[in-house]
Amino acid sequence: MPLLRIQLDTDRNTARRVVDLHRRGGTHPESRAAAEAEVWRKGHTPAAAPIFVGITNGEPVRLIYDVEVYPAVTR
Fold it and tell me: CB–CB of 55/15 below 8 Å?
């Protein structure tokens, strides 16, 4: 299945909290839901839960998620 990379704008405090949760084996439900919503907004259907990849190092800080999507069907 193809992967769609999603970047979500956030603030540094939230980014640190998400990274800390991920390192402890947890998840950040709000950002995962936002990543899934972004996939739908782009016209794709998620095939699995978003996977946290990391954060950007610039301004604005962004959370990075990879989301497995169903391939597009063409006729």
Answer: yes
